[in-house]
TrEMBL record:
Monomer. Interacts with DnaB. It holds the Pfam family DNAG_N. Belongs to the DnaG primase family. It is an enzyme of class 2 (transferase). Residues 257-339 form the Toprim domain. Its EC number is 2.7.7.101. This is DNA primase. It catalyses: ssDNA + n NTP = ssDNA/pppN(pN)n-1 hybrid + (n-1) diphosphate. Its cofactor is Zn(2+). Keywords: DNA replication, DNA-binding, DNA-directed RNA polymerase, Magnesium, Metal-binding, Nucleotidyltransferase, Primosome, Transcription, Transferase, Zinc, Zinc-finger. GO terms for biological process: DNA replication, synthesis of primer. RNA polymerase that catalyzes the synthesis of short RNA molecules used as primers for DNA polymerase during DNA replication. The gene is dnaG.
Length: 654
């Protein structure tokens, strides 16, 4: 619906921005404005300002700017009409009525919602009555607490053919409305209508407003099929658009910057009960483009949690095919596969919230899952098969519409393919033993190129490895910082050689096939790739247990919590600053070593100036490192993980 500008202006005039923002952000007056900590980014120093006179807020840390409507949209995921309707209701501003056709449809939807609400109350009451004994035993078996049953309004559909139908007729509801709401089934042969849900535990499905619009029913008898039954598509309910628990998860997801997606509503309820509030579920339908867009409104990188069996991995692979064309800068997905055939419900029952979050912490980026899908078990023992695999990745990355993301994926996979082809040829020459196919990690044999790294540079070794590892893991960040990176000399010659080869891959081989150029890369590059970044590890024919980038994550543990790309970018520039600072310290040491009896005033002034600049940069580096550590704590807390005393958040170990 379009709202007249005069109506929007009246709402703005009656409701100061500071009043709406102040419900979420602690504000303090600062002259004519209010200041507070950004609700969009973790920070210690306020960079968020509200000006009631001008009617807007502005966040310097994120660049976000807007009025009262935009604030609700940004912080709670509301659509513009939802934000307008909520604030208009608060201040008593009457909104214009929709046109006659839309008004009629809205009345019909409201009427169907009323019918669903009456059905929900009937099911809730039936669960409490004597006929609900079996359903109550089932919820006890699932370890669902009374407060959880109440929160999710769970109920019971009696086994009788028309128990709900009789109840609603007694309330004055006609059968056509019950059919339209998906509550009754009307046989084609003219027999009487009957209840769709019978002898089932009932879970109401609610829309973004919290209205009951449909139901999911879990069979209580093993003879009843299917085990899970959802309402059919109705005027109110569209499976491909709906996220179960979306209205509850929205605020938590916005506060935490993260959301978990599970397969079933009982899984979502169990995870929610365990204390993970930002959890939603799809409703027994394939992942759709609408699901993708709705999830990105909740968080930029949702974690999709599947069972680790073949069915779960297959579902993840199908989801990836839907997601690839939609990928855009700053938005992606991660995938967590649960171990031992467990589903989320079983995992939280056996290990609680911590066990579930530990598995979420092991989630793999979409790019890694796609790589595994295409390479595990794939034979590349001939030039033709190598070329076919390369073409497959070219075709897949070509589906990504966002040019910048597509370029990043192409660089990532060209790098990995070059490593994979090199491993394969070494294997054919007897350079390594055993494995499981395309993803095997080579085992160096005596006489292999030695890339052992000295201890003498201490901290700088670890920082250089983090920087180089980040370039491999986040090609888009390498591309953004490429000029500065090339201008900085690495302290270790092998690191410098690795950086140069990575630069060549990124800039010189765009029009060549991987199979054409990989053999010309310095062999030390591939040995260092394992040491600096951490390639996939396998143990004979066993399933891979350690994924790419593990060495990087060991040195920089915050990466295990899927921080925003903007935060990772800040880390990269921070560590580049440290390398530059080390060069300045070396220059100062050299200047001191050259000082003799013939030292001039100019020499003294240059040394003093350099010393002061180093001191200033050290202070700035320490301040920024503290800020990044504080942000890391917030990221971990948002992910649901506390920090044990003494646990480093921003380690940069060798």
């Amino acid at each position: 619906m379009k709202f007249p500008p005069a109506i929007l202006d009246e709402i703005r005039a009656r409701l100061p921005v500071s009043e709406v923002v102040g419900r979420r952000v602690k504000l303090r007056r600062q002259g004519r404005e209010f200041a507070g900590l950004s609700p969009f980014n973790p920070e210690k120093t306020p960079s968020f300002f509200v000006n009631d006179q001008k009617g807007f807020y502005h966040c310097f840390s994120s660049g976000k700017h807007g009025d009262v409507f935009r604030f609700l949209m940004e912080t709670e995921g509301l659509s513009f009409p939802e934000a307008v309707e909520r604030l208009a209701s608060e201040v008593g501003v009457a909104l214009p009525k929709p046109d006659a056709r839309e008004e009629r449809r809205e009345r019909e939807r409201a009427s169907l919602a009323d019918v669903c609400e009456m059905a929900a109350r009937f099911y809730e009451e039936a669960l409490r009555l004597s006929g609900g004994d079996e359903a109550r035993r089932y919820v006890v078996k699932r370890a669902l607490r009374p407060e959880t049953l109440k929160e999710f309004r769970m109920g019971f559909a009696p086994a009788e053919r028309d128990a709900l139908k009789r109840h609603l007729i007694g309330k004055g509801v006609d059968e056509e409305a019950m059919i339209a709401a998906g509550l009754l089934i009307k046989p084609d042969d003219g027999r009487p209508t009957y209840d769709r849900f019978r002898n089932r535990l009932m879970i109401p499905i609610q829309d973004d407003r919290g209205r009951v619009v449909a139901f999911g029913g879990r069979a209580l008898s093993p003879d009843d099929k299917p085990k899970y039954l959802n309402s059919p598509e109705t005027e109110l309910f569209h499976k491909g658009l709906m996220l179960f628990n979306g209205h509850r998860a929205r605020a938590a997801a916005y506060e935490e910057g993260a959301v978990v997606v599970v397969e079933g509503y009982l899984d979502a309820i169990a995870v929610f009960q365990a204390g993970v509030r930002a959890v939603v579920a799809t409703l027994g339908t394939a992942f759709t483009e609408d699901h993708i867009q709705r999830l990105w409104k909740l968080a930029p990188e949702p974690v999709i949690c599947f069972d680790g069996d073949r069915a779960g991995i297959g579902a993840a692979h199908r989801a990836i095919d839907r997601i690839l064309p939609q990928l855009k800068s700053g938005y992606s997905f991660n995938f967590a596969f649960l171990p031992d055939g467990k589903d989320p419900d079983e995992l939280v029952q056996s290990g609680g919230k911590d066990a579930f979050l530990a598995e979420i912490g092991r989630a793999q980026p979409l790019a890694d899952v796609l790589w595994d899908r295409e390479t595990v078990g794939t034979s590349i023992d001939t030039p033709e098969r190598k070329a076919a695999l390369e073409k497959r990745f070219e075709d897949l990355t070509g589906e990504i519409k966002d040019a910048r993301v597509q370029k990043s994926y192409r660089l990532r996979y060209r790098l990995r393919l070059s490593n994979l082809f090199w491993q394969s040829e070494r294997g054919e020459r007897g350079g390594w033993r055993g494995g499981r196919g395309a993803g095997d990690q080579p085992r160096p044999v005596p006489g292999s190129t030695d890339v052992s790294l000295p201890e003498r540079l201490g901290e700088l070794v670890g920082i250089e490895r983090i920087v180089l590892g980040l370039m491999v893991e986040f090609p888009e960040l390498f591309e953004a910082a490429i000029e500065r990176t090339i201008g900085i000399d690495m302290g270790l010659e092998p690191h410098e050689a690795f950086k140069r080869e990575l630069y060549r891959i990124a800039t010189e081989f765009d029009d060549l096939s991987v199979s054409t150029f990989y053999s010309g890369i310095d062999q030390r590059f591939f040995f260092l790739l394992k040491e600096i970044h951490g390639d996939e590890l396998a143990d004979g024919d066993r399933r891979v247990v350690v994924h790419r980038g593990h060495r990087l994550r060991e040195r920089l543990p915050i990466l295990r919590f899927h921080p925003p790309v903007t935060y990772v970018e800040a880390l990269l520039w921070h560590f580049l600053d440290r390398i530059e600072l080390r060069h300045m310290e070396s220059d100062l040491e050299h200047a001191f070593s050259q000082v003799g009896a013939d030292c001039t005033l100019e020499d003294e002034a240059r040394i003093l100036g350099l010393s002061r600049e180093i001191g200033r940069r050290r202070e700035e580096f320490a301040r920024r490192e503290q800020e990044l550590a504080e942000e890391a704590k917030l990221i971990r807390a948002a992910f649901g993980s506390g920090t044990a005393p003494g646990t480093p958040l921003l380690t940069h170990q060798r």
